[in-house]
Every structure is written in structure tokens, then in C-alpha cells.
């Protein structure tokens, strides 16, 4: 029976291909948005968490808020190398610390001056922030100690400077000093201007010498195994609070908090886009209902004929309900297909490992079904309750 | 008695009093009978046939079909009756224009839940019986009026109903084709099917064993 109803529906939909297509467009857009946003949101979130979480849950980041805010104060609250080491010694629960130095410098890239982020880090930094080294290696403890002029360069920067050269043996000039490239790194996330793929990482000692100062604005801290990260965070906060007059000048964030922030942001985006998708599904549903009402009216005679040969109310109800269901499933199918296309495209362009999940597809079809049934019931009910003799008389 | 009708009225809600399409009509039809209903338009003959065919409800009075009171039947039971026990032929044929002949004829089988595989052969057999074996997968619009009416008859007969209700089946046909259709109906009646026929042509009515004439919702002869 079910197959027949499906065939009936397809047959009658074929009569009005353009009309059917236009009708389902709203559902298509709604399902497309839902499936796309869920997939992209989920994929993006996983990616962010993956990249952030690489250091592990026992990572804490202490950083200056002033430098982030680009404060105009002449003197920012910074830490010195000694103060960082002292903090490590005085606070129980700290396994390791890695102070970062930073310098923005301009480089001639393809004839244009480009602002490049240069970060100076100790060798143990790489244990906390796990970058993908595409080629070459990270620096050794000794290279850092002896302020070797070596550097690890972001993949994109390397390509624009040396045009995809096969060898690593190149020098990069930073403020008049040449650094030898020993490795190429990549990092999937591009967080605003802070793009590792276009940055240069130098030994902290070498950058310190270049800067002529030792101002640390960010420290990576790793908690000892088994130590409570929140407790440690509070201790660090208190420690820093004693060093600076402005208690707000430094901020301490744990990995868990980072993850929560990412979670919140992606949830908000999801909710906003889902509501838009929801609205378009409702609008699409109203379109379906409208066209089904037209269809019922056009086919009143057909209903009469069917009833005269023994169709029950239920038979007629199912027939029309199936039609709106199929209409919505077709629309939803197109939407899912389009979402799959978009995701594939994004994955290719942005080099992301995202794909349509079975769950998202199922959700797309579920929404299509719900819209088809919800907005199809009333027209189908109208058709079902037509009186045979009146329906037959209808021309 | 196959059909017993007592004091039947059908009132349409028109104006204050309402319009009495049927006004206290009594009638009985025995099994295997062939009855023609004549009368001017508006005399209530189609209303009577629609009520007999369980397509319409009655306002008051009693209609017993094989001893069962039709007024007490549910919608589902009425659909069953139309499906199993009554076949219809209409002046305008009432075929589904987009379905093939076979699909049209197998429709009653579909609604009576006959297994899918049995429907087509049974529909084809019925189409052969009315002489349309070569046009099985044509659409009704490709056929002449007489052929369409034969398809309608094949559809009416496919579930082996005991009663055929034919509402001016020859109204849109020429004399020769009309005669062919009437021959089919006559043949069915000889095989034991009860035929109730509406017409306003004497010659067509003459096929029937019994002729009644309606006027203003009542039987005059």
C-alpha cells in the first residue's frame, strides 16, 4: 500500500514540476541551513578544541590584558624572566613555565611590507603548545641557551618568502639580524591577526637580545599531574596580583575555560542560525500547506472518484499526507545535498577535516518529515472529509 | 428484497423551507432486477441514485440494503459497500485522466486490499471483457466516449458487485455506442447483476424490466 501511495504522489507531483520545486524551496533552505550549520559548527568546534586542547587540560595561560587591549599606557605591567622563574619556584603545583616574548616587525614579502609576528620561546614551550612541524625540527635546549640565530617559520610565510622552496636553508631578516630557518610549522586555527602560519618563532634568548629588553607578556604554565588546575589558577592570580598595582593587568585562563568560551560562542552562533533555519522551515511549511490546499481543490473530483470506488477517509488522508511528506523530503534532500556540497567546498578551501555526519543528515530528514506532516495534515484532512457526492459534482 | 426504501426524503438547505429533492419516496428493488429511473431534470432521480449508491446521505425515512439500515453505517462501512457491493457508471465517465486504463480499473481492487500482484491481471481481464484488450496502458483521454464508458464499466465490475448504478451512462454517447453499452449492461443483468439505470431516453429505458418516473421527488408511475 505504502509504495502505491508514494507512486501516486510522485505521479501527481510530476504534473507540476516547477510548482513542486518552488514550493519546496523554503524547506530546502531551512534544511540546508540546519544541516550546514550543525556540520560546520560541530567541525569547527572540534577543530578549535583539538588545537587548543593539544597542550592538555593541565595547561594554564597567564597573559597581560594591557597588551591585548593595546593600552596607551607608557609602561605596561610585564614580567621578567627571573620573575617567571621565581613564580615557578614559589607556587606549588607548577610543573613547568614557558615565558613568551613577542615582537611585531615588518618584512618585505613579495615586494610589500608586511607586519609579521615574531615570538620568542624557550625550548620547553614546544612541549606545551604542540605545533605541527611540517618540515625540519624545533630548537634544542642548547640552541636556546646559546642564543642561536635559528627560527621556525610559519608555512604560509615560508611559501610567500621562498616560493615553496624544497630546501630549508634560507635566512630570514628580523630587524637587521639574520636567522636561519630550521623548521616549518603550521597550525590550523587562524585567530584574527594572530596567525601562526604567518609568524616566526625564535629562541627566547635570541629575541630578548634583539629586543634589548626582557618584557614577558604571556606565560604558558603546566600544572603538575594530579594538581588541581583551578586551585593553581587562583594561586597564580594571587601571586601576580601582588606584583602589580593594577590587579586587572594580567589574566589567568585555564584550558577548560578556553574550551568553555569556545563552546559558548559556537552555541550562540548555532542558536542564531538555527532560529533563522527554523523560521525558514515554518515559512516553507506554510508554502507547502498553501500548495497542498490548492492541490486538494484542484483534485476534488479525483477525491470524489476515489471515494465512489471505495476509498475511505483514511485512504484519502494518507494519499495527500504522503504527497506533502514526499514534497518535503524532496526539498529536504536537495537541502542536505547542497549542505554536503558546501561542506565539501569549505573542507577543501579551508583545509578542514569536516564532513557531513549521519546525525546531521538524519536531523535534516527528520525536520523535513515533521514539516511535511505538520503542514500537510490540515489540507489532507480537508480532502478526506469531502462528501463523495459533492466531490464528484465538483468541476 | 435487495433494496427497500420507505418514505425517503432528502432536503437540501436552500431558503427557509429547504428544497425537497426527494419527498416521501418508497421503493423496493429485488435482486437481479433491472430498473430504469426516468424523469425531468430536478425530479430527484440523481439524488435517489446517489442515496442508493451510498454516495449521499438521506434526511429521513429508511433505506435497507440487503436488510441492513444504511443510515446506521459508519463512513468506513459505507466506503466498503461502495467498494464491494456497488459499481458506478456516470454520464461523464469519471475516470482519472492521468492514470492508464489498467490503473483506473484496478482502483477498487487497491482500495479493497487485493494483493498487488493480483490486481493487474484482474483489471486486464475485466478490460478484455469490455473489449479494450489492446489499449491497456492508454490514458482515458485518448479514447472515444464509448470506450471510456466501457472502461468505467470495467472498473465498476472489477470487484464483482451485486449492483450497478448507472447515471445516464449513454448521455454523452451516440446511438450506436449507446446500444453497445446497453448490451453490456443487459448482459450483466442476465448474469444476475442488479442494474439501476437513470435515463431520459425511452429507447434506453426499454432495456429495463421496470421503469419508474419521478416528479418533484416522488414516484409518479
Short description:
The complex is a heterodimer of chains A (about 400) and B (about 220). By secondary structure, chain A is of the alpha+beta class. In chain A, about 55% of the residues lie in helices and about 20% in strands.
Protein topology:
The complex is a heterodimer of chains A (395) and B (221).
Chain A: H1 2-15, H2 17-52, E1 59-64, H3 65-68, H4 81-90, E2 94-109, E3 112-121, H5 125-128, E4 132-136, H6 141-145, E5 150-154, H7 155-162, E6 171-174, E7 177-186, E8 199-203, H8 204-211, E9 218-223, H9 229-243, E10 250-254, H10 255-298, H11 300-308, H12 313-349, H13 358-384, H14 388-393
Parallel strand pairs in A: 3-8, 5-7
Antiparallel strand pairs in A: 1-9, 1-10, 2-3, 2-9, 4-7, 5-8, 6-7
Chain B: E1 3-12, E2 19-29, E3 34-39, H1 45-52, E4 60-65, E5 68-69, H2 75-84, E6 86-90, H3 101-111, H4 116-129, H5 145-157, E7 163-167, H6 175-190, E8 194-198, H7 202-205, E9 210-215, E10 218-219
Parallel strand pairs in B: 3-8, 3-9, 6-7, 7-8
Antiparallel strand pairs in B: 1-2, 1-4, 4-5, 9-10
Tell me about this structure.
The complex is a heterodimer of chains A (395) and B (221). Chain A is of the alpha+beta class. Helix content of chain A is 57%, strand content 18%. Chain A contains 14 helices and ten strands. Chain A has helices at 2-15, 17-52, 65-68, 81-90, 125-128, 141-145, 155-162, 204-211, 229-243, 255-298, 300-308, 313-349, 358-384, 388-393; strands at residues 59-64, 94-109, 112-121, 132-136, 150-154, 171-174, 177-186, 199-203, 218-223, 250-254. In chain A, strands 1, 2, 3, 4, 5, 6, 7, 8, 9 and 10 form a ten-stranded mixed sheet that branches. In chain A, β2 and β3 form a beta hairpin. Chain A is elongated and about 100 Å long. With 221 residues, chain B is of the alpha/beta class. Helix content of chain B is 34%, strand content 26%. Chain B is built from seven helices and ten strands. Chain B has a six-stranded mixed sheet, with helices on both faces. Chain B has a four-stranded antiparallel sheet with strand order 2-1-4-5, covered by helices on one side. The chains are: A alpha+beta (395), B alpha/beta (221). The interface between A and B is medium-sized, with 24 and 26 residues.
Amino acid at each position: 500500500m505504502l509504495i502505491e501511495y508514494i507512486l501516486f504522489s510522485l505521479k501527481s507531483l510530476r504534473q507540476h514540476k516547477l510548482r513542486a520545486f518552488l514550493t519546496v524551496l523554503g524547506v530546502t533552505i531551512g534544511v540546508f541551513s540546519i544541516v550546514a550549520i550543525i556540520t560546520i559548527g560541530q567541525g569547527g568546534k572540534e577543530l578549535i578544541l583539538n588545537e587548543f586542547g593539544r597542550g592538555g587540560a593541565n595547561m594554564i595561560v597567564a597573559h597581560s590584558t594591557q597588551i591585548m587591549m593595546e593600552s596607551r599606557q607608557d609602561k605596561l605591567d610585564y614580567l621578567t624572566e627571573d620573575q617567571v622563574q621565581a613564580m615557578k619556584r614559589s607556587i606549588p603545583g607548577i610543573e613547568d613555565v614557558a615565558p613568551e616574548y613577542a615582537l611585531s616587525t615588518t618584512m618585505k614579502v613579495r615586494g610589500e611590507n608586511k607586519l609579521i609576528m615574531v615570538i620568542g620561546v624557550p625550548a620547553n614551550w614546544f612541549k606545551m603548545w604542540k605545533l605541527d612541524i611540517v618540515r625540519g625540527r624545533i630548537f634544542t635546549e642548547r640552541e636556546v641557551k646559546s642564543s642561536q640565530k635559528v627560527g621556525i617559520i610559519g608555512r604560509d610565510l615560508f611559501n610567500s618568502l621562498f616560493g615553496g622552496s624544497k630546501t630549508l636553508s634560507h635566512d630570514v631578516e628580523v630587524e637587521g639580524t639574520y636567522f636561519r630557518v630550521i623548521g616549518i610549522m603550521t597550525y590550523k586555527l587562524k585567530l584574527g591577526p594572530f596567525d601562526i602560519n604567518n609568524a616566526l618563532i625564535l629562541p627566547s634568548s635570541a629575541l630578548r637580545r634583539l629586543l634589548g629588553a626582557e618584557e614577558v607578556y604571556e606565560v604558558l604554565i603546566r600544572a603538575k599531574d594530579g594538581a588541581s588546575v583551578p586551585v593553581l589558577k587562583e594561586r597564580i592570580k594571587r601571586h601576580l596580583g601582588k606584583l602589580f598595582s593594577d590587579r586587572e593587568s594580567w589574566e589567568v585562563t585555564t584550558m577548560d575555560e578556553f574550551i568553555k568560551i569556545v563552546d559558548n560562542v559556537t552555541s550562540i552562533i548555532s542558536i542564531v542560525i538555527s532560529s533563522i533555519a527554523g523560521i525558514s522551515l515554518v515559512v516553507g511549511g506554510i508554502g507547502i500547506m498553501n500548495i497542498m490546499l490548492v492541490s486538494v481543490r484542484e483534485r476534488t473530483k479525483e477525491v470524489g472518484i476515489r471515494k465512489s470506488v471505495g476509498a475511505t477517509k483514511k485512504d484519502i488522508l494518507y494519499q495527500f499526507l504522503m504527497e506533502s511528506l514526499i514534497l518535503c523530503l524532496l526539498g529536504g534532500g536537495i537541502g542536505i545535498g547542497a549542505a554536503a556540497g558546501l561542506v565539501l567546498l569549505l573542507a577543501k578551501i579551508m583545509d578542514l577535516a569536516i564532513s557531513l555526519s549521519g546525525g546531521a543528515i538524519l536531523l535534516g530528514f527528520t525536520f523535513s518529515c515533521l514539516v511535511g506532516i505538520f503542514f500537510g495534515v490540515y489540507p489532507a484532512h480537508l480532502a478526506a472529509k469531502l462528501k463523495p457526492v459533492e466531490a464528484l459534482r465538483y468541476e | 428484497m435487495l433494496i427497500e426504501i420507505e418514505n425517503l426524503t432528502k432536503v437540501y438547505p436552500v431558503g427557509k423551507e429547504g428544497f425537497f429533492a426527494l419527498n416521501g419516496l418508497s421503493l423496493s428493488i429485488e435482486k437481479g432486477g433491472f430498473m430504469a429511473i426516468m424523469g425531468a431534470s430536478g425530479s430527484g432521480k440523481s439524488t435517489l441514485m446517489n442515496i442508493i449508491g451510498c454516495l449521499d446521505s438521506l434526511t429521513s425515512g429508511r433505506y435497507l440494503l440487503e436488510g441492513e439500515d444504511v443510515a446506521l453505517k459508519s463512513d468506513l462501512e459505507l466506503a466498503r459497500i461502495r467498494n464491494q457491493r456497488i459499481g458506478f457508471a456516470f454520464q461523464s465517465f469519471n475516470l482519472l485522466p492521468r492514470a492508464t486504463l489498467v490503473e483506473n480499473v484496478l482502483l477498487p481492487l487497491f482500495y479493497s486490499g487485493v494483493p498487488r500482484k493480483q490486481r493487474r491481471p484482474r483489471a486486464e481481464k475485466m478490460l478484455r471483457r469490455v473489449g479494450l484488450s489492446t489499449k491497456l496502458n492508454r490514458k482515458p483521454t485518448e479514447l472515444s466516449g464509448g470506450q471510456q464508458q466501457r472502461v468505467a464499466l470495467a472498473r465498476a465490475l472489477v470487484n464483482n458487485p451485486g449492483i450497478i448504478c448507472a447515471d445516464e451512462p449513454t448521455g454523452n454517447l451516440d446511438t450506436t455506442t449507446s446500444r453497445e453499452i446497453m448490451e453490456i449492461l443487459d448482459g450483466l443483468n442476465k448474469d444476475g447483476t442488479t442494474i439501476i439505470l437513470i435515463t431520459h431516453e425511452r429507447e434506453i429505458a426499454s432495456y429495463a424490466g421496470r421503469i419508474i418516473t419521478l416528479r418533484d421527488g416522488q414516484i409518479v408511475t
